[in-house]
Amino acid sequence: MNILSIQSHVAYGHVGNASAVFPMQRLGVEVWPIHTVQFSNHTGYGSWKGRVFDGPAIEDLVEGIAERGVLPRCDGVLSGYMGSADIGNAILGTVARVREANPDMLYCCDPVIGDVGRGIFVRPGIPEFMRDQAVPAADIITPNQFEIDYLSGIETNTVAALKKAILAVQNIGPKVILVTSVETDVTPSDSVDLVVGEGGRFWAIRTPRLSVNVNGAGDAIAALFFVHYARTRSAALALVEAASSIYGLLKRTEEAGSREILTVAAQDEFVSPTYRFSVEEI
After folding, report:
1. What is the pTM of this model?
2. 91 alpha carbon, distance to own chain's centre
């Protein structure tokens, strides 16, 4: 499998491509990473060095890959945080180009917009770009609960409301939607839910709540879910594999007291998760 991953990148730590690429490689996937930014570290530290690239820079790299004649062998495109509409347009142009070369490819968009407690944290115009252009172009999206609320215009404080929100967003494009960090009126305070919808059916996994708060977990679970779905074409099976791996990864990170996610030290979690969770149809 060959995946083109277009995301931000950091030299130190693990967010964006630095969080997504290695798990996919550990699962035996050939990854072609294109970085939308190259920073020294993630911005949560308060200071960083590096550069933000623009749309033409991304398009130039894609053109170089195309010149190798390999786009028909690209099985999917993965995108995450988009720093500008310029970059977003370059990503969507790339998706269209790959889809023309390989009609069976899949596009997985992690629609990074904001989070519960923080609100919207991307630049003005990006939430609307995600909702109106990126999400409709995607086959798979992996929003958190705040983001599915924004995309659907529905407050998902119940399971019924969450199902309604997933169906509403599916109607504009993506057939598979994984919602992370879910808390509804039936979620115990010591737990967190992940819910996926596909073909009018819904499945959920409940995991223990961890105290760890690290950047890059969303990037990792999007990559893991994408690979497992591309291989199995089953949202339920992909949810089991991705949720089990990400929980083990975060559990190991919590136990180590690390501020950075232990992508390398806990790499066995990607192929042989310590914890296995059961999926339930809801």
Report:
1. 0.97
2. 15
